[in-house]
Amino acid sequence: MAMMAVSEALARLLADAGPLDAETVPLSQARSRVLADDVIARRTQPPFAVSAMDGYAVRAADTGDPTRPLTVIGEVAAGQVFDTPVEAGQVVRIFTGAPVPQGADAILIQEDAEPAGEGTIRAGEAVARGHHVRPAGLDFSEGDRLIEGGTRLDGGHLSLAAAGNHAELDVRRRPRVGVLATGDELVQPGMSPGPGQIVASNGYGVAAILEDAGAEPFDLGIACDRRADLDIKLDAALAAECDVLITLGGASVGDHDLVRPTFVARGMELAFHKIAMRPGKPMMFGRLGAMRVLGLPGNPVSSLVCTHLFAVPLIEELAGRPPSQRRTTARLGAPLGANGPREHYMRGALTREDDGTLVVTAFDNQDSSIIRLYAAADALIVRPPGADALDAGSRVEIVILREPR
Ligand SMILES: Nc1nc2c(c(=O)[nH]1)N[C@H]1C(S)=C(S)[C@@H](COP(=O)(O)OP(=O)(O)OC[C@H]3O[C@@H](n4cnc5c(N)ncnc54)[C@H](O)[C@@H]3O)O[C@H]1N2
Ligand code: MOO
């Protein structure tokens, strides 16, 4: 199969991807989830006029006369109701959050009330009608649309939904993503690798990046380079009802690269294998029933770059999130050589000059095995296939991985 352009591969990957179905979750589990439908207020907030201050519920017309004593006829705190109407010359002691009694139309804060003998006060300062009164519906009214479907829920949204009397919300299901490392050479971190073995590292970064994008990662462990073992792991991914299976390694052309032939033998429809990209050439995508299978190359940087450029957009589509990838341009801090036939995503450091100009400098070593330089990278410089050499100061397209320091 000929190598496919990056843009074409991305288009195929996303062609029929859309938000997964909805599920109902309690508010306590709704943070960062994507709302499936509008949230409509089930009540009015506040449901009645309430005092915004501690003081006295008064009739505004009674205030402003320092000689006039006003009779305190009772008291009302939040959670209580004072149901005797307030007549001229009367006030009610009131506390923040309490319903304003009928007949009263303003709040005199207690600092402005002068004691005037047993059970009376004076209101020398005039207060306007409505002063320190929060009218019913100040925040929202029953039937109002509080939050639009498709919103990613943060703390403010959750308080708003709760105030609207929703105990649970309909949100998009998070894509369940099985992450499977492959290779006889791999052992889990913390173990003692035997002769010829290394520590499996790719899955940790891939799972973390995808969780940030809205996925629920599911660790399928490590498969040996044997078809029978890959079969078992594939069964585990299917049994776990993974929406997406991500394999790491075993994607190339060597005798031990068995992911594609094993999965094709199991009925996977292959959409593409091999893209004109560096790193990431042997990437593969297919479908096995409802499950999407994304086979990433084993080189650590290849796995991580492909995760950013392909797996993240896929997960965001399935999760109902808007694309998060930030592409812009920057000036080169150092010259770059001509590019080969594959679109090259070069790791680099990003800085911002005093005038706001972004400057990106590619690391000298772009080998796809060097995890340290990936972890240090702030941006990927996008070099189109066959691009000419560039001088320092030239403008290049970049994908921002983290904001410049
Ligand atoms: N004859 C050819 N050989 C290779 C080609 C080619 O076109 N012709 N392509 C090269 C490119 S480009 C890449 S990328 C790699 C990818 O190969 P695989 O996907 O089959 O990856 P592996 O061989 O399994 O592993 C490559 C490398 O990465 C290490 N690895 C694998 N998994 C992990 C993991 N989970 N954590 C950490 N490191 C991992 C593995 O030990 C290898 O060193 O193929 C080239 N070869
Ligand atoms: O494409 Mo490979 O991912 O260059 O190292």
Task: Map the helices and strands.
Layout: H1 6-14, E1 22-26, E2 39-40, E3 50-51, E4 55-58, E5 69-76, E6 90-94, E7 106-109, E8 114-115, E9 120-122, E10 133-134, E11 145-147, H2 155-163, E12 168-172, E13 176-182, E14 186-187, E15 198-199, H3 202-212, E16 216-223, H4 227-239, E17 244-248, H5 259-265, E18 269-273, E19 277-278, E20 284-288, E21 291-296, H6 300-319, E22 326-332, E23 343-352, E24 358-362, H7 371-376, E25 379-383, E26 395-400
Helix pairs in contact: 3-6
Molybdate ion binds next to loops.
Keywords: Magnesium, Metal-binding, Molybdenum, Molybdenum cofactor biosynthesis, Transferase
Family: Belongs to the MoeA family.
Pathway: Cofactor biosynthesis; molybdopterin biosynthesis
Could you explain how this protein is built, in words?
- There is one protein chain.
- With 405 residues, this protein is an alpha/beta fold.
- It folds into four domains: 6-20 and 174-319, MoaB/Mog-like domain (Molybdenum Cofactor Biosythetic Enzyme, Chain A), CATH 3.40.980.10; 24-45 and 142-172, Alpha-Beta Complex (Molybdopterin biosynthesis moea protein, domain 2); 50-134, Molybdopterin biosynthesis moea protein, domain 3 (Molybdopterin biosynthesis moeA protein, domain 3), CATH 2.170.190.11; 326-400, Beta-clip (Beta Barrel).
- The protein is 19% helix and 30% strand.
- It contains seven helices and 26 strands.
- It has helices at 6-14, 155-163, 202-212, 227-239, 259-265, 300-319, 371-376, and strands at 22-26, 39-40, 50-51, 55-58, 69-76, 90-94, 106-109, 114-115, 120-122, 133-134, 145-147, 168-172, 176-182, 186-187, 198-199, 216-223, 244-248, 269-273, 277-278, 284-288, 291-296, 326-332, 343-352, 358-362, 379-383, 395-400.
- The protein has a six-stranded mixed sheet, with no helix packed on it. Strands 16-13-17-21-20-18 form a six-stranded mixed sheet, sandwiched between helices. Strands 22-24-23-25-26 form a five-stranded mixed β-barrel.
- Strand 23 (343-352) and strand 24 form a beta hairpin.
- It starts with 5 loop residues before the first helix and ends in a 5-residue tail after the last strand.
- The model has no long low-confidence stretch (mean pLDDT 97).
- Molybdate ion is lined by residues 278-281, 297, 299, 302, 368.
